[in-house]
Write a structure and sequence with these properties.
- The complex is a heterodimer.
- Chain A is mostly helical.
- Chain A is about 80% helix and about 0% strand.
- Chain A contains 15 helices and no strands.
- The longest helix of chain A has about 35 residues.
- The two termini of chain A are about 40 Å apart.
- Chain B is of the alpha+beta class.
- Chain B is about 25% helix and about 35% strand.
- A 6-stranded mixed sheet of chain B has the order 6-7-8-3-9-10, with helices on both faces. A 5-stranded antiparallel sheet of chain B has the order 13-12-11-14-20. A 5-stranded antiparallel sheet of chain B has the order 15-19-16-17-18, with no helix packed on it.
- In chain B, a hairpin with a 2-residue loop joins strand 4 and strand 5.
- In chain B, helix 3 crosses helix 4.
- The longest helix of chain B is centred in the middle third of the chain and has 18 residues.
- The C terminus of chain B is likely disordered.
- The chains are: A mainly alpha, B alpha+beta.
- Chains A and B meet through helix 11 and helix 12 of A and strand 6 and helix 5 of B.
């Protein structure tokens, strides 16, 4: 019954080359993503469960993981709100310098993250421009978890803006006018008509920003101060373990990060799929 | 609700879209704003709705000056050409939207909103579709839902912007009849924009013909078709042929030949004679006729159309005859209009010289464009 199964699997379609395209996709994904990650899992599996658990639940590791994911979540959430605002301004208003602002948004992508980290550190350090302003209030930004959030917010800025912008641009102005003729205030129009239409795009941007923030290394290590248990992120801990030639501990941390990241992204994607079903009718 | 528009002017970036338009609409009337694209009809509708604000002039709802009021406060039902339904809401939620966004004190209970939505769906003849999404409906159904949504807020006036423009011909015809019935039942003052003259003439109580930001004529469909007030209306509504003539001594001439048409009260000089294809007669024994040469004959459903070129000028006329008229149409024919209208040539007051200079006086002062005289 090989032909029957194959027949079901390979449905006739007007889009040609399913076999080739699918094969290429699998090979590419394997080479670039799955094999390195598989090797990581294999290496940490060689540890044995007990060793792995000991290394993964080490207090310093736990503190680093908690900091990494918490800071990433906060930074992605900040960008969700302000990214939407930026996209809104760029799409809806005509003002001098709009093109320049548009170009500036992509800069965090183009800049080497180390450069961003050093620049931010110089600004937010207690003797920097911003740091010296808040220092009299007893606040410290650089060399604390707040500094990490600042750096992560900077590097993930473009994601939400760039995913929401095209959707917002294509949004039908007539539906907003319709809402207004029906007596809806601007606020009600925004929350009931515009936001639901943007939700899938917002979640995509959020997931991308989150993923980027979790893996960010270059910019954070400069501003964080890297104090163990306080401002040491998990990617840095991996590097430290590698420098100690403690490969087992490094892979253990990496494996835990992998599992948590994958779970988080899966959840975001599921919410996104749900919102597309719920709000994306006809779009 | 009476609607009254006073000297409304609207300019977009210094480009004028409406020139001092005034219009009175009585309560319960069904009015069509008819015109080619760019005539300002949609702008006028959007101004009445409050989706645009006038550069000058005012709009009255009854006796209340609504000019400065926002669209939220005007309580109008507006139907868009492309439906503008909320895609992420069910049909019932779409219809109930206007009630749900009301202030808490004026908002009906959710059960009441749901019941109203069902009632309105019955009214627009789509019972039982409450839980569908707009994407699951056909174009005609979506437009009905859009209308139900507009009616849900108990509008003071119903405004429709090319409501059937995006639908195919058959559905369009069906919805046209249905809208007429609905209007008779609910009695809302209704203004709709269309570029389809058939739709305007068939559906409305009165038609407002617009061109280049001005109102050309306001009247019942009969008045618009039978007694067009301006050359634009005559050529825009229905089929017509234009024959350049010259008037002298109260008589119309083509070339230097009298065509047996009187133009009393019209000043001497060039003029334009408009006639409908079915108002042209073929005659044989009359010296005072329009002489023409047949260029084509074609058959279209119940009629036979003869195309002919007038002697002495390049303009063509069309004659509509019954399909069973089996005469052979070839070569030279003589035509006589049964009903016609002559407008003095406002555009080219002195350029026409078909008759030469001789005994004809040419008025050099420009004539007002609406100056016209029905001679029949």
């Amino acid at each position: 019954m090989v032909t029957a199964t194959l027949g079901r699997f390979k449905q006739p379609s007007v889009i040609p080359c399913f076999g080739m395209a699918f094969g290429f996709t699998l090979t590419y994904l394997s080479l670039v993503v799955l094999i390195p990650l598989g090797a990581l899992v294999l290496r940490s599996a060689g540890l044995g469960l007990e060793d792995f658990w000991r290394l993964a639940t080490d207090p310093r590791t736990l503190a680093a993981l908690k900091l990494t994911f918490l800071a990433a979540l906060i930074a992605a959430t900040i960008n969700l709100v302000f990214g939407l605002l930026l996209a809104w301004v760029l799409v809806r208003y005509e003002f001098p310098g709009r093109r320049i602002i548009d170009a500036v948004i992509d800069l965090p992508f183009a800049l080497p993250t180390a450069v961003a980290g050093i620049a931010l550190t110089a600004l937010y350090a207690p003797n920097g421009w911003v740091g010296s302003l808040v220092a009299p209030l007893g606040w410290k930004i650089a060399y604390t978890p707040i500094g990490i959030v600042v750096a992560l917010t900077f590097v993930c800025l473009p994601f939400v803006v760039r995913t929401v912008e095209p959707v917002l641009r294509d949004l039908d102005r007539e539906t907003e006018e319709a809402a207004a003729t029906l007596g809806a205030s601007r606020f009600a129009t925004f929350t009931r008509v515009i936001l639901p239409a943007l939700l899938p795009a917002l979640l995509t941007g959020y997931a991308l920003a989150l993923a980027r923030a979790i893996g960010e290394y270059g910019s954070v290590i400069f501003i964080a101060g890297n104090i163990p248990y306080v401002s040491e992120i998990a990617p840095l801990l991996i590097v430290i373990r590698l420098e100690e030639f403690n490969y087992e501990a490094a892979t253990a941390v990496a494996a835990v990060m992998l599992i948590i990241s994958f779970t988080m992204l899966l959840i975001v994607n599921l919410i996104q799929a749900w919102s597309r079903r719920r709000f994306g009718h006809g779009s | 609700m009476d609607i009254s528009v006073r000297e409304l002017r609207k300019t977009f970036d210094r480009y004028p879209a409406l020139h001092d338009v005034s219009l009175d609409i009585q309560s319960g009337e069904l009015i069509a704003l008819l015109g080619p694209s760019g005539s300002g009809k949609t702008t006028l509708l959007r101004l009445i709705a409050g989706l645009e604000f006038p550069t000058s002039g005012s709009i009255f709802y009854g006796t209340e000056d609504a000019s400065g009021k926002s669209v939220r406060d005007r309580q109008v039902g507006f139907v868009f050409q492309h439906y503008a339904l909320f895609k992420h809401m069910t049909v019932a939620d779409n219809i109930g939207f206007g009630l749900k966004v009301r202030d808490r004190s004026k908002r009906p209970s959710s059960a009441e909103i749901r019941r109203r939505a069902s009632d309105l769906l019955d009214l627009v003849q789509l019972p039982g579709l409450e839980d569908r999404y707009p994407s699951q409906l056909s174009g005609g159904q979506r437009q009905r839902v859009a209308l139900a949504r507009a009616l849900a807020i108990e509008p003071r006036v119903l405004l429709l912007d090319e409501p059937f423009g995006a639908l195919d011909a058959k559905v369009r015809k069906e919805l046209r009849r249905w809208l007429r019935e609905l209007h008779e039942r609910t009695g809302h003052t209704t203004i709709f924009v269309t570029h389809d003259q058939e739709e305007a003439l068939e559906l409305s109580d009165r038609v407002v013909v617009m061109s280049q930001g001005r109102i050309e004529q306001v009247g019942t469909p009969d008045e618009i078709y039978d007694t067009p007030a301006t050359p634009f209306v005559f050529s825009f509504i229905g089929d017509s042929s234009e024959i350049p003539i010259s008037v002298s001594g109260g008589e119309a001439h083509v070339g230097n030949r009298s065509i047996g048409v009187f133009a009393e009260g019209l000043p001497d000089g060039p003029a334009r004679l408009f006639v409908r294809p079915h108002d042209l007669d073929l005659v044989s024994d009359d010296p005072q006729t329009i002489a023409a040469v047949v260029t084509a004959v074609r058959r279209n459903s119940g009629s036979r159309f003869v195309e002919a070129e007038i002697d002495g000028c390049r303009s063509k006329v069309e004659i509509e005859l019954p399909a069973d008229d089996m005469r052979v149409f070839e070569g030279r024919i003589a035509l006589k209009p049964k009903r016609w209208k002559i407008f003095p040539d406002a555009k080219r007051p002195n350029s026409q010289s078909v008759v030469g200079k001789g005994p004809y006086k040419h008025e050099s002062e420009p004539k007002p464009p609406d100056y016209s005289q029905m001679v029949s």
